[in-house]
Amino acid sequence: MFMTAKYCRCSAEGRWVFVMLAVWGLISAGRLSLSGETALAVESPPPLAARSNAVANPFPADFRRVVFLGDSITYAGDYVSDITAWSLTRYSEHRLEMINVGLPSETVSGLSEPGHAGGKFPRPDLHERLARVLAQTKPNLVFACYGMNDGIYLPFDAARFKSFRDGMVWLHNSVEAFGAQIIHVTPPVFDEARGGHAGYSAVLDLYSAWLISQRTNGWQVIDCHGPMKRVLAAEREKDPAFAFAVKDGIHPDSYGHWVMAQAILAGLGATDVAADGSAAAMMAGVPHGLEILGLVREQQAIMKDAWLTAVGSKRPMKAGLPLAQARARAAEIEKRLSPLLIKDAKPGA
């Protein structure tokens, strides 16, 4: 069941800064390692589906549109497609429109490092476009995954941390004021072995711990950071060269996206994906599963650019199709997709 508790502003912001600085000192001294949901994270009941019913649809019957907000990792879209395919094949009678409006380079903190993108443009700020996103997509539910860019790849700084916290509170309150529900997703892991920026992995540990702590204020928060960090460590034990993000330590491959999707689905109450090592494995037991997943990805690729173009932003992006044209293209794909969702259907039937 979705939570309805509203956010109550914490009166201990100063204590949080003190705690973060203390923890940062311990990390820097090598006396503390943060992994998973850390000691700073306050445990709370699972945020969504009742765990007593493993097959319960986590999305209320009156929900129609689910929006995914985030940066380039969300824009890449694999984890969005994986979640969409899961929902579509488990609850085909409850068709949800999953809308990806992730924008590369974006922050919720409003910060940008000097010379970003070779000086071509500063990092886009969610504050500039959120009202348009909500007005145009009209979501029932928003997933928001920020943090990767918000510390601008520098060591921990109390002022930058405050900008992140303030941005997240603003985002949370804005979505609730619109009348939608919001689920915060902790940022993916940053891999210093591939991306450099010494100390930045620990910054995201702290940002994630703060987000998780907001469960005590009624926020719905799913931890993606901890599971990714654990899988990265386990895989690197087997193969020291392993990486989710080979090129830059930031942008995960399809496996990394699957670990994100798996963590989010687990947070929603899904128990049928825990043993799956990939999206393909998740779909293996579904008739025409891989074909369905491929068609979902086709639809998502068309619609995400169309939505970004319709909403607009200050970041240079390739133009997507006009929404009406994109919807027509998606409808053509739907003609191939829908028959596959009928029990025992055969391709082309």
- The 3D shape can be described as globular
In what order do the strands lie side by side in the largest sheet? 2-1-3-4-5
Number of helices: 12
CATH level-1 class: Alpha Beta
CATH superfamily placement: SGNH hydrolase
* Overall SS class: alpha/beta
Series of H and E elements: HEHHEHEHEHHEHHHHH
Give the low-pLDDT segments: 3-14, 31-54, 344-349
The total number of structural domains is 1
Q: Major sheet, described briefly?
A: 5 strands, parallel
Average pLDDT over all residues: 87
Could you walk me through the main structural features you see in this protein, from its secondary elements to its overall organization?
It is a single chain. Helix 3 (78-90) packs across helix 11 (289-311), helix 8 crosses helix 9 (254-268) and helix 11 packs antiparallel against helix 12 (323-341). The longest helix has 23 residues, at 289-311. The model is unreliable at 3-14, 31-54 and 344-349 (pLDDT under 50). The chain has one domain (63-341): 3-Layer(aba) Sandwich (Rossmann fold), CATH 3.40.50.1110. It has twelve helices and five strands. It is of the alpha/beta class. The chain is globular and about 55 Å long. 45% of the residues lie in helices and 7% in strands. The chain has a five-stranded parallel β-sheet, sandwiched between helices.
